Amino acid sequence: MPEIEDSNTAALNVFSLAGKLALITGGGSGIGFYIAQSMVQAGAKVVITGRREGVLQEAVATLGPNVHYFTNDVTQLSTIPTLIESIEAKHGPIDILVNNAGINMKKHAIEVTDEDFDRVIQTNLHAVFAVTREVGKRMIVRKKGSIIMITSMAALYGIDRVVAYTASKSAVGGMVKALATEFSPYNVRINAVAPGFIETPMMLTAMNGDPSRRDKAMDRTPMGTWGKPDDIGWAAVFLASPAAKFITGVSLPVDGGNSIGF
Ligand code: NDP
C-alpha cells in the first residue's frame, strides 16, 4: 500500500501555487486586486497590470513584496508582445494568466454607437485574445500553463442594456472552448470564471441610482447576497492549481446560484 500523505498537507499542496508566476491584467483594483491577493496567499509571485500607475503602486504596497506591476493599456494591442517579453525578462516564465481587465457600458442597444461597441469589444474580447495568444504561445513551447478568463453571468444568459458587454463576454466563453481544444495537447489549460453580482466599483457604479435594479439583482440570486471579490479570487486559485489539473474548457459560475435561472 502506498503511504497516505497527511490529509492537511495533501490539501495544502494540491491548492498551492508556490513557485508559480501569475500575470493578472487589471489587477490593481476591484476583482483583479482580490485575485492577486488570493494568489499571493496561495504562494504565487504575481504581476499586475492596468492603466493607472498610482492604483497599481497602491496595490503593490498593500499586497507586499511578491507583487509587481507594469503599467499598460491592453487595448494598445501592438504593445502586448513587448509587455509580455518585459515581464518574463524581469520575473521569469508566466505560469498563470488571468485575463481580468474589462469594462462595462450600460446603454439601451439602440443608443450604443459604433465607437461604444468597438471600445467594449476591443477591451473585453480583442485584447483578451491578443494577451492570450502572446502568453499562450510561450506556454505551448514550455508545455505547461493555466489561463483563466474572467467572463460574467452575461456570458450565460441575456441581460438588458449591456449588449456589447454581453456579446464580448459570450465570445470569450466560446473562445475558452475553442482554445482548450488547441492548447490541451500541450498541457496548457484554459477556463473561465463567470462572476455573478460582485461588490466592486464597476458593479456598484452600474447599479448606482437605480435601487430597483439592485433589488432585481438580489431577487434573482438564490443565495440572496452579493458576492465578495475574494470569492472570485479563490475560484481562480482553484482553477490555476494542481487540484484542477484535469479541468479545461469550462466556464465556472461563481454567482450565488444566479445562473440556474431562479
Ligand atoms: P473594475 O472596474 O473595478 O476593475 C477593472 C480593472 O480593469 C481595473 O483594474 C482597470 O484598471 C482594468 N482595466 C480596464 N480597462 C483596461 C485597459 N484598457 N487596460 C488595462 N487595464 C484595464 O471592475 P471589476 O473588478 O468589477 O471587473 C473585473 C472583471 O470582472 C471584468 O472583466 C468584469 O467584466 C468582470 N465581472 C465583474 C462583475 C462584478 O460584479 N463586479 C460581474 C461579472 C464580471 P485601470 O482603470 O487602471 O486600467
From TrEMBL:
InterPro entries: KR_dom, NAD(P)-bd_dom_sf, Sc_DH/Rdtase_CS, SDR_fam. Residues 20-212 form the Ketoreductase domain. Belongs to the short-chain dehydrogenases/reductases (SDR) family. GO terms for molecular function: glucose 1-dehydrogenase [NAD(P)+] activity. Its EC number is 1.1.1.47. This is Glucose 1-dehydrogenase. NCBIfam families: PRK07231.1. Keywords: Oxidoreductase. PROSITE patterns: ADH_SHORT. The keyword Cytoplasm does not apply. The keyword Oxidoreductase applies. PANTHER family: 3-OXOACYL-[ACYL-CARRIER-PROTEIN] REDUCTASE FABG, SHORT-CHAIN DEHYDROGENASES/REDUCTASES FAMILY MEMBER. Pfam families: adh_short_C2.
